[in-house]
Amino acid sequence: MKNPDKTEQIEIDMLLETIYRQRGYDFRNYARASLERRVRTQMDSFGLKYISELIPYMLYDDATFDSFLRNMSITVTDMFRDPHFFKALRTQVIPNFAALPYIKIWCAGCATGEEVYSLAIILKEVGLYDRCQIYATDYNTNSLDIAKNGQYPLDKMKQFITNYNKAGGNKIFGDYYHARYNFVKLHKGIREKIVFSHHNLVSDSVFGEMNLILCRNVLIYFNQILQNRVFTLFNESLANGGFLCLGTRESLEFSSLEPLYKKELVKQKIFRKK
Amino acid sequence: MTQQEKNYKTIVIGVSAGGLEALSTILPALPQDFSMAVAVVQHMKEDGDNYLPEYLNRKCRLNVLEAKEKYSLKSGSIYIAPPGYHLLIERDFTLSLTVDPPVCYSRPSIDVLFETAADAYGQSLIGVVLTGANIDGSKGLKKIRKKGGLAIVQKPDTAEAQAMPSSAIEIAGADHILPLTGIGPFLKELGRIK
What residues pair up with B42 in beta bridges, in sequence order? Predict the structure, then answer.
């Protein structure tokens, strides 16, 4: 007797293999449960009955593939999400950079940009922004466009401001943006030191030596094989004494690199390369 | 095979408004040698501290902890979803977390836990929907039943908020509709069968 569960697993494997070989995007080592949910949602939205029916689209239809790809990595975050993390970043990590002539920062998997702008605001307030170069990367070009634009829905501002104040912000948050209808746009001064570019953690390599890497709530989407690949990439990208910041529910625990890092701040998941 | 002879491995519980009391009633009833793992989604504010695991751990004989990604589910442990993250169960019985958009306005969402748990465990899963003013959990419970798992819903008139259990009964149906105080002892019985 055919087992429908097993059949579906075969279909997903074939779909991911097709996407990899035809389009170069490798989802094969993503954590499977959330990936399956996303694939099923897309299958439903296309009105399809079987996952394998998505395969011809991946092979032949660029527009459908693009929309599929966009929907594979939609996440939702806020500016200064986890205020205690940003507070620690401000008071205990960033002061270490004060003596550097030039500060290089990588925001890996920046999605729609809330996190990298939060960081930029902190750097501005402590007076180090002019010496910074921030690289904000993601594989999702649609998210990158939103990030580059620096424009967010007005109704999210209340949460952003609450977070900002909890994170130790001491200016008027409203001075960093202007409102436009139902949106707010961040000022150019906040955006000027950030370079947004396409980079895929799954397949791309090191592009510079960093003093700080922020990669929060990205690795939770990967299986252990892929997590280890990315940790190696980060390790090769970090200067000695550089900082690695993960999401508050992520860790280096299952990584072979753990001994190379000092747990600088345990609760905030801030690690320092020895 | 009758229901009582099935070998259940894991319980997933979804609860919203009124959850503290409901969980404090049910979970302490589970004995030290309980044969199943328990994963819980309790709706809460995204930016809150997660006091729940510690609070429940003091009341329970089983080990209550916050769910961590990549950890394997162990029988006799109770895993609570962290605020601001969806909790999922992988087919290799490890836990995953995501920051996917909220489902039913909630993150963590009960549907997300239930649906992925149903894929992982099929008929060896028990789903429990408790008090709440939301419809989260209904879709997930439906999937649990479709895959042959057991569905338990709190009797709505014993719930602080009736909408969630009522919706679950309407959309998914239930194998057992039990008053709050009856759920713990019932799970205890099911967890004894080997």
Answer: B15
User: Do A87 and A64 share a structural domain?
Assistant: no
In a domain, A168, yes or no: yes
> Domain of A228: which CATH number?
3.40.50.150
Q: Is residue A78 part of a domain?
A: no
Tell me the catalytic residues of B: 16, 43, 136
Contact B140, B114 (CB under 8 A): yes
Residue ending a domain, choose from A39, A71, A103: A71
ipTM over 0.90: yes
What's the CATH architecture for B7-190? 3-Layer(aba) Sandwich (3.40)
Q: Do A194 and A269 belong to one domain?
A: yes
Which residues of chain A from 54 to 113 reach within 8 Å of chain B, CB to CB? 74-77, 81-83
Of the candidates A31, A76, A250, the beta carbon closest to that of B101 is on A76
Instruction: Output phi, psi for B131, to 5 deg.
Output: -55, 145
Are residues A33 and B84, on separate chains, in Cβ contact within 8 Å?
A: no
Range of the domain at A19: 4-71
Of A33, A38, A247, the CB nearest to B89: A33
Instruction: Give pLDDT tens digits along chain A (274 positions).
Output: 678 889 999 999 999 999 999 999 999 999 999 999 999 999 999 999 999 999 999 999 999 999 999 999 888 889 999 999 999 999 999 999 999 999 999 999 999 999 999 999 999 999 999 999 999 999 999 999 999 999 999 999 999 999 999 999 989 999 999 998 899 999 999 999 999 999 999 999 999 999 999 999 999 999 999 999 999 999 999 999 999 999 999 999 888 889 999 999 999 999 999 9
Q: Does A10 touch chain B (CB under 8 A)?
A: no
User: Exposure string (b/e) for B73-104, b if CB count within 10 Å is 16 or more?
Assistant: beebbbbbbbbbbbbbbbeebbbbbbbbebbb
Residue A222, CA distances (Å) to A64, A192, A207, A229, A231 in order: 24, 31, 21, 10, 11
Contact between chains at B99 and A36 (C-beta distance less than 8 A) = no
